[in-house]
Model the fold of this input.
Amino acid sequence: MPEQPLPAMEPDVLVLHEACGVVAVQKPAGLATQAVAGIDSMELRVRKMLKARGEGEYLGVPHRLDRCVSGVMLFATTRRAARKLSRQFERQQIRKRYLALVEPPGSGILPKPGEVWVDLVAKLADEPRGWIASAGDPAAKEARTQVAAVGRHQAAVTLQLEPLTGRMHQLRIQAACRGMPIVGDRLYGSRRPLTGSVFAADPRQEEIALAAISIEFVDPGEPNTPGSQVRRRVEAWPWWAKALERNPTGVAHPLEDPGMNPRIPGGVGD
Done:
């Protein structure tokens, strides 16, 4: 993992990058992106941060991360930035990379660099999850993910995933249907919690070993200043990736979560 400048700490918010109406933060696992009034969420924390600074009340949420997933998220503090980011998401011009720790497949066959998973997925009726769909299912949507195995451990495999489409639980479903459920993701068949020896009583508080480690976008720039619209890459690494770096031979036992560590490498590059 490349060393990056340390991110700025705000109360309850780890800010990785901020410029031209865009705020990039590191969302912790177990926290919803958005929630109803009175419930904690990443959006609420960023709003409180902006209010404490005496800044404007507008906050756009151009994308989301599942509650159980950690990693880089973008927010927009101006309507102009929100509009430009939303357009980039719609046109698939934003590049996102994820890191996942998965249970090894029984076949022992791991994805090769550049391999693309292509599946039809659909949400299961009356359930908060999806699965592989048949070609005749009217709810089926194509899911495409570029994948590579980047680490092999005693009881797990590290994958780098780049979604080329944006379906619900896409990465979780595609890994699980290939016999590689993400560690901690009991919704999709994982038998191992990421931390401790047993799963949390409340599955909504469970952290899974899936993190958005980088996002690349075109900075909206300053109005009427075309030269300021440069491509940015913001990165952040999960605590469990650092644990693997310290113990690369494997994860024979569940990892211990040291808590959100402000010294996790994270930053922004051109």
Residues 8-269 form a domain with the Pseudouridine synthase fold (CATH 3.30.2350.10). The longest helix spans residues 42-53. The chain has four helices and twelve strands. The chain has one domain: 8-269.
